[in-house]
Specification:
The complex is a heterodimer. Chain A has helices at 30-43, 48-69, 72-89, 99-128, 157-171, 175-186, 191-198, 202-222. Helices cover 59% and strands 0% of the residues of chain A. Chain B contains 12 helices and 12 strands. By secondary structure, chain B is α+β, with helices and mostly antiparallel strands. In chain B, strands 3, 6, 7, 8, 9, 10 and 12 form a 7-stranded mixed beta sheet that branches. A 3-stranded antiparallel beta sheet of chain B has the order 4-11-5, with helices on one face. A two-stranded antiparallel sheet of chain B has the order 1-2. The chains are: A mainly alpha, B alpha+beta.
Chain lengths: 238, 380
């Protein structure tokens, strides 16, 4: 693999590679450079740097998890698990990918693994739900959840309602399709970064992305939702 | 779609490039011309473009409070489990219940040290805001601000700050909870020094706070430490609507909301009154805070235009709730209002192009707003 070492569910390499730009770290933005400085500081024994590093990325990672699993509680659990793995696996980060990309990769591995476990656990009860309910190809109910995992009213019910249209449609997609749309659209990753995160070839990213977009369209149409007609503001709440 | 030479792989990439907006103008025209015979497919592609825009427009949500502390918890548990390997949990890291989290060691240890420093300032400020100090075991009246701050004597805002503290002696029965009873100062200070957070109550409730806000007599005392925490809170004021933006949206109708800030200098460890470190209120520029930097927040007095409704005040307060369920905000009455600086060429220029927050909504939904002073205190 030509990317940062995997952590997620995979063994970690305990070596601590050179992170200096040039080992794949060219074209570093200021943010990337700051990340690498923090990594060096951590490896040099500065444990204060952990808090800074995670604080810089926590919102990004949490929102990836939130879009994948939808409810805040599960998303917080996923983010926490991912951060623990990031801390435990930092020694395996070899600097060939941007640190932010590597962290997203770890996070996505955690989320996808969790979703697979949940799918296995949930399958019998899903079967027992009965017929007539919308169900994705993976057997996960697409019934609009009325309150499950919803934020408390003071946390923005109105905003949640506004977004639930897209979120509902996303739930109909496979986790992998959801992942690629989230990485591309919600996080704005380039194709190459998505390839690094998902550990697939560049061509595969493009073909999967197009199919994921087509699947999302089908999901919206299947629920009788034509989607935004007048631009992105149509999805806004209220 | 492209006649007898249809190649799904090539076509998919071309279509994807169209949806992603990666085609040149010529390529785009060529593709659209090729699809003239298939209007349904063309409409489908346009819908995919709109779907893409919609996905990109979904705003990020704030991170649950205490997430990093929970990570530290998990690491500490794992460290303990590594030393005492049985019984092993099913999964290595689980988030703990949201209440009664204890301070963690590990990498948050140094942060705790920093927080301890802030605690000193916080306690001092708490003393000052109680309207009393205890220099030698007994209560004495707070020295006049002008005694410590040469500029305060001629500074109306400094006088307003005194009024803020003076409210602690309000005898009105309806607001009696806001006034420190004998012994209450010591009790609150004792709580401030304890491990658990001290702010557990709102001296006035949201309903009363809204009334006070409409009279210009509400002050919100909030405890935040980091700029990002402050930004997240600002984005959740007014019911946490997702339509709140920290940057002026490119399109759509917006109600802009302004804020001003005045820095305070807190002499840590000394029972000094807060001193204004800046000479006047300045328009708050969130670009100083956003987007990626997360710095220690300076104590200060913020004037924010807010909706003076119970719902909005309650939402703003609840948005300051920590993971352990403790509100980091106190709603208290002011004796006299604190007014924002009068609009002038300087402040207008500073706010050119909009406000500090933007609500995406049509004008008929715009809500009247009042200026609410928000005292930013060091958090622990």
């Amino acid at each position: 693999m030509s990317r940062g070492a995997a952590v997620g569910d995979q063994p970690v390499d305990a070596s601590a590679p050179d992170l200096r730009p040039g080992g794949g770290g060219s074209d570093l933005s200021d943010e990337d450079q700051k990340d690498l400085e923090l990594v060096e500081a951590i490896r040099g024994g500065d444990h204060d740097a952990w808090g800074t590093l995670l604080a810089r990325h926590q919102e990004r990672l949490f929102n990836i998890c939130l879009r994948m699993v939808r409810d805040r509680e599960s998303a917080a659990d996923c983010t926490q698990d991912a951060m623990v793995r990031i801390i435990q696996g930092l020694d395996s980060y070899d600097g060939r990918a941007r640190l932010s990309t590597w962290m997203i990769r770890v996070t996505m591995n955690v989320v996808l693994s969790r979703m697979r476990r949940e799918k296995v656990r949930r399958h019998p009860s899903i079967e027992a739900l009965g017929e007539g309910e919308g169900r994705s190809r993976e057997g996960v109910s697409t019934r609009r959840r009325e309150g499950a995992g919803e934020p408390a009213p003071e946390e923005g019910v109105e905003s949640h309602e506004g977004r639930s249209v897209v979120f509902d449609a996303l739930q109909r997609l496979s986790p992998e399709q959801r992942a690629i749309l989230i990485l591309r659209d919600a996080r704005g990753l380039e194709y190459e970064q998505i390839a690094e995160v998902l550990d697939v070839a560049l061509g595969t990213v493009k073909s999967r992305l197009f199919r994921a977009r087509a699947a999302l369209r089908e999901a919206l149409e299947a629920e009788g939702l034509r989607g935004p007609e007048g631009g992105s503001d149509s999805w806004e709440s209220r | 779609m492209t006649g007898g030479t249809y190649n799904p792989q090539i076509d998919e990439r071309l279509l994807l490039a169209y949806v992603e907006g990666e085609l040149t103008a010529d390529q785009r025209r060529g593709l659209l011309a090729a699809m003239e015979a298939d209007p349904a497919q063309r409409e489908r592609l346009e819908a995919m473009r709109r779907d893409r825009a919609a996905l990109r427009a979904i705003p990020d949500e704030p991170v649950p409070a205490g997430l990093l502390a929970a990570v530290a918890d998990a690491l500490e548990r794992e460290a303990i489990l590594a030393e005492n390997p049985s019984p092993a949990p099913e999964t290595p890291a689980r988030r703990q219940p949201t209440r009664h989290r204890r301070p963690m060691s590990l990498w948050v240890g140094p942060l705790a040290a920093a927080a301890a420093v802030a605690l000193i300032g916080g306690v001092a400020l708490l003393q000052l805001l109680e309207g009393r100090v205890d220099g030698a075991g007994g209560e004495v009246e707070l020295p006049e601000l002008a005694m410590s701050d040469p500029e305060a004597a001629s500074d109306p805002a400094a006088g307003e700050m005194l009024a803020l503290r003076g409210e602690a002696s309000v005898a009105d029965e309806g607001e009696a909870r806001a006034a420190a009873a004998p012994g209450e100062v010591e009790a609150r200070l004792a709580r401030a020094e304890a491990t658990e957070p001290a702010w557990v109550a709102e001296p006035v409730d949201a309903e009363r706070a809204a009334e006070l806000a409409r009279e210009g007599r509400l002050v919100m005392r909030v405890r935040v430490t980091r700029t990002q925490e402050m930004l997240r809170w600002l984005a959740r004021v007014d019911a946490g609507s997702s339509r709140v933006a920290l940057r002026r949206p490119d399109e759509g109708l917006v109600q802009s909301v302004h804020a001003w800030r005045r820095d305070l200098e807190v002499r840590r460890g000394e029972p000094q009154p807060p001193i204004f470190a800046s000479r006047a209120f300045e328009p708050l520029d969130v670009s100083d805070l956003a987007p990626e930097t997360d710095e220690e927040l300076r104590p200060g007095l913020l004037l924010l235009e807010m909706e003076a409704s119970r719902r909005a005040i309650d939402s703003a307060a609840r948005a300051m709730e920590r993971q352990d369920g403790v509100l980091q905000v106190l709603l208290e009455p002011l004796e006299t209002p604190i007014h924002p600086p009068a609009p002038g060429p300087a402040s207008s220029a500073a706010h050119e192009g909009g406000g500090v927050l933007w609500w995406r909504q049509s004008p008929e939904e715009w809500t009247p707003r009042v200026t609410v002073p928000i005292l930013i205190e060091p958090a622990r």
